[in-house]
């Protein structure tokens, strides 16, 4: 179903591209402008206040490092204590420690999310993607959400729930960027005056885009992949200037992370060491493959696409069920999270008992059985000199499990039954865990699931292929990512940066293209499905075929609310109180013009600022630029979250309601306009490609009879 939704029906914040200007360095209200054009400059205050500059995105890298450091140490202590008890034969006590620690961590994450910042639940990528497309959902990028996202992600990932930290890192990076863009948080006394230059929708949108790129770079140590991820998946509007800003951002993140990792490699970070910040350097040697290896690789891509689409379908259904339950009360949300934690702990502790013990190989480069937190050869309940291959995957963090699956020269390490059990477990646990009221990413669970599937295929092929099982695990992860998330270029680069080998490129490209093509025949990508389930409107990049048969006049909505160039204060108050529109056309009529004419567009926030300042006129006369003397540029800047002025908070006397306001100096005199006969498809493309929020529709005739502000949002299933 498709429908047209106005920005008044959603809390759309969209990029104010219609407030754009040619120069990024020209001062506001410069005398070089003609009077007719200078009147529109206050309408774009804050957009062009300063030359292009960068921000301190090392904050994101520090948060990413802290996240990984905390997860590795918390989960590491849990696994060390449990393993030591298992070694001493105290199985019941080991299970109790494992069970209670997981439950406590999950309960903590659920409580702070449910009571403090419900917007922090889930991955966060769909919310940020919707924000960059123009939907400003309440609280998704606030300081409170950011803090809960960090703490909740650490707890949830450490609790052995099959959730990831990449999505929460993207959300965290976007929150940090938004806070920088609004000058900090006035509510908590964290403000910086120099950041006022970025207090507008356009700059904040670009900063959030850079923040999402920084989040991927911090989660995977993939700076180039982070830039491409923001370009391919997150941003609805992209320019060359934004490209280099995002690239600089991820470069800073990568450098800071590298320096911090070097410190930890010296043993100063507790249990943080080989695990944590992912770099699966598992293919330092040359890899050779032949034309005979192409059919099995294509098979991996096809099956991965089918599995990925099935994963999306089931996850969408589960999230909808959770949504029905979660609306009842907070108690239900926390109960579901605890129930899933209990089920997960019992399953993870019980499944390794089904696997048979394997004798330790003689040519292994590491100790067998593994003593400590991570390793390929977990002893679990096995006798000396043996290891439990399923426990080697389950009793590790997700990062270490992926490293074990990706490792080469380990073709004989895992049994067929082990890999099949692990794949099925990851597939379903990642689905039921994603809907808990806690920060829960999808990237890492999908990689784990896909890697186990790919390695299982490699084991089935056995001697019929020249590729080792670790390589098939990489291809399986790529196919499952492509089938679920439907990205190609960014995923390809992220996987290459993870595995640190360019020789994998041809096969990974082939697998991603095949899996995405196959999965696209069944449903959409997972983030789009989640956005739709959460009710976020989203403007697609392409126009639907039916739009070519319609004009913009066919979809405009009314009744029209507009302002005159010189308007009575009472009329402005009435319009603001009776509508939720965020922008209003401004027209001039005789005697201020020879005939009715569209002068421009004025924003709701600017009207409220004018009313607060009470710069009223007793007679309806045009005063022009003289009005600027009563205002500072900062007064028209974008307000921070929670600081938006409301018309209900302004009290005016009856005498003031009869006065007038000259809106000309504060109106954007050059808004984007289209004629009513323009194709709906062309208007939709213009709206999306130019990053607009408001688009004025004017009639063909010389009489101004029908203006409207319309956003076209495609909600096709």
UniProtKB/TrEMBL annotation:
SMART domains recorded: CBS (SM00116)
Q: Where in the cell is it found?
A: Membrane
Q: How does it sit in the membrane?
A: Multi-pass membrane protein
Q: Which InterPro entries match?
A: CBS_dom, CBS_dom_sf, Cl-channel/antiporter, Cl-channel_core, Cl_channel_pln, ClC
Membrane-crossing residues?
95-121, 141-163, 207-230, 242-260, 272-291, 297-314, 334-355, 420-449, 502-522
UniProtKB keywords: CBS domain, Chloride, Chloride channel, Ion channel, Ion transport, Membrane, Repeat, Transmembrane, Transmembrane helix, Transport, Voltage-gated channel
Q: Which SUPFAM superfamilies match?
A: CBS-domain pair, Clc chloride channel
This protein's source sits in the domain of life called Eukaryota
Q: What is its main location?
A: membrane
Q: Can the keyword Repeat be found in this entry's annotation?
A: yes
Write out the similarity annotation.
Belongs to the chloride channel (TC 2.A.49) family.
Under the heading PANTHER family, the entry gives: CHLORIDE CHANNEL PROTEIN CLC FAMILY MEMBER, CHLORIDE CHANNEL-LIKE PROTEIN CLC-G-RELATED
What is the designated name of this protein? CBS domain-containing protein
